[in-house]
Amino acid sequence: MTTSLLLIADTHVPARARQLPHAVLSAVDDADIVVHAGDWIDVATLDLLESRARLLVGVYGNNDGPPLRDRLPEIARFTVDEVDVAVVHETGQKQRREERMDADFPGVDLLVFGHSHIPWDTVAPSGMRLLNPGSPTDRRRQPVCTMMTVAIDGSRIDATLVPIA
Q: What are phi and psi of 103, to 5 degrees?
């Protein structure tokens, strides 16, 4: 049976947007698991996603203060089917990211991260998949805001970058 994940990061509500876009909330309602890779900024967004998601996995980011850090870990880990997943906000510079993350997260099959607001989908030398969904509220230098959907079936990971108009 396929498990659906919604990946988001860097929501920055209310600093970059007053609220999460409707497309994100609709995707939250459809996902089996919602993953937020940090930089929430406000507790209200965490409360909202906790109330709507079937299962929410989140971490705090560099812009998240004590109220969020009190409720969220720096690194989260969980397993879906045969896929061991880790979530972290920052992975450092893009040069040699895959090799560094192999060393930092041995045995992980899927690493979800944020921070850059830049979508990322690569595979490390170990075979670990690295995914950054970008930001649904702050596109920075990207053409559009984004999120990702992921389907996990056994050990298969299918990821799709979803633009938000």
A: -70, -40
**pLDDT tens track for 49-96:** 999 999 999 999 999 999 999 999 999 999 999 999 999 999 999 999
The answer to whether the peptide bond before residue 66 is cis (omega within 30 degrees of 0) is no
Grouping H, G, I as helix, E, B as strand and the rest as coil, residue 40 is coil
* pLDDT at 16 > cutoff 90: no
Q: Provide the residue count of the chain.
A: 165
Query: Which residue reads 């880990």 in tokens?
Result: 77
Closest CA to 17 of 145, 148, 163, 162: 145
Considering only CA atoms, which of 150, 7, 5, 2 is closest in space to residue 89?
7
Output the CA–CA distances (angstroms, integers) from residue 85 to 35, 82, 106, 137, 145, in the order listed.
10, 10, 11, 24, 24
pTM > 0.90 = yes
Tokens found for residue 22: 């409707």
Residue with tokens 């192999």: 102
